[in-house]
Write a structure and sequence with these properties.
binds xanthosine-5'-monophosphate, 180 residues, Hypoxanthine phosphoribosyltransferase, alpha/beta, binds magnesium ion
Length: 180
C-alpha cells in the first residue's frame, strides 16, 4: 500500500503538532461553552480522535455522515444525510471536524443545515484546506494545512475506499488512477 504513494505530504509527527496547536486554540475559544464536536464521517475519524484528545475542557462528541450532491445541476445548499446526529444542536456551540475542504459544497450545506436547526454557533476545524478549488464560500476557523491542488490520501482520506488507514497524508502515484 505504501508503494502506491508518490510523496508523503504530512507525517504523523507534523499532524500531531498541528493537532496540539489547534487543540490549544480550541480549548481557549470554547472554555465553558460545552461544545458539541461533530465528526464528519468517514474521512475525519482519525483527525477527530487527535483533536478531541487535545481539547482540555468539557465537550461532547457526535458523528454525522453526509454527501454533497456535488454538481451544478442540483441546487446548491443541499446535503444528503446518510447518518444524522444523535443529539440536538439547538442552542449548542458546534465545532465541525472535517478531513478536507475542497469546493466547499459539503461544508457550506452542512453549516446551513446546522444553523437552520438553531445551533448557537457553528465553527469548522479541518485537517486540510484546498482554497484554490473553492466554489462555495467556506472559511474554516481552524486549519491544519493548506494543500496544493493534488488528490491526497491517507489519515482518513480515501481513494475508492482505500488508504484511509495510512498514518500520514500523501499523494497517490498517477498510475494508480490510470489503472482504474
Ligand atoms: P467539497 O468539494 O464539498 O468536498 O468541499 C469535500 C470532500 O471531497 C472529498 N475530497 C477528497 N478526498 N482526497 C480525498 O481523499 C482529496 O484530495 C480530496 N479532495 C476532496 C472528500 O471526501 C471531502 O470530504
Ligand atoms: Mg469528507
Amino acid at each position: 500500500m505504501n508503494n502506491d504513494i508518490k510523496a508523503v505530504l504530512y507525517s504523523k509527527e507534523q499532524i500531531d503538532e498541528v493537532a496540539r496547536n489547534l487543540g490549544e486554540r480550541i480549548t481557549k475559544d470554547f472554555e465553558g461553552k460545552n461544545p458539541l464536536v461533530i465528526c464528519v464521517l468517514k474521512g475525519a475519524v482519525l483527525f477527530m480522535a487527535d483533536i478531541v484528545r487535545q481539547i482540555d475542557t468539557y465537550c461532547e462528541l457526535d458523528f454525522m455522515d453526509v454527501s454533497s450532491y456535488g454538481n451544478n445541476t442540483v441546487s446548491s445548499g443541499e446535503v444528503k444525510i446518510i447518518k444524522d446526529l444523535d443529539v440536538s444542536v439547538k442552542g449548542r456551540n458546534v465545532l465541525i471536524v472535517e478531513d478536507i475542504i475542497d469546493t466547499g459544497r459539503t461544508l457550506a450545506s452542512l453549516v446551513e443545515l446546522l444553523k437552520g436547526r438553531d445551533a448557537a454557533s457553528v465553527k469548522i476545524c479541518t485537517l486540510l484546506d484546498k482554497p484554490d478549488r473553492r466554489v462555495k464560500t467556506v472559511k474554516p476557523d481552524y486549519v491544519g494545512f493548506e494543500v496544493p491542488n493534488e488528490f491526497v490520501v491517507g489519515y482518513g482520506l480515501d481513494f475508492q475506499g482505500h488508504y484511509r488507514n495510512l498514518p500520514y497524508v500523501g499523494i497517490l502515484k498517477p498510475e494508480i488512477y490510470e489503472n482504474i
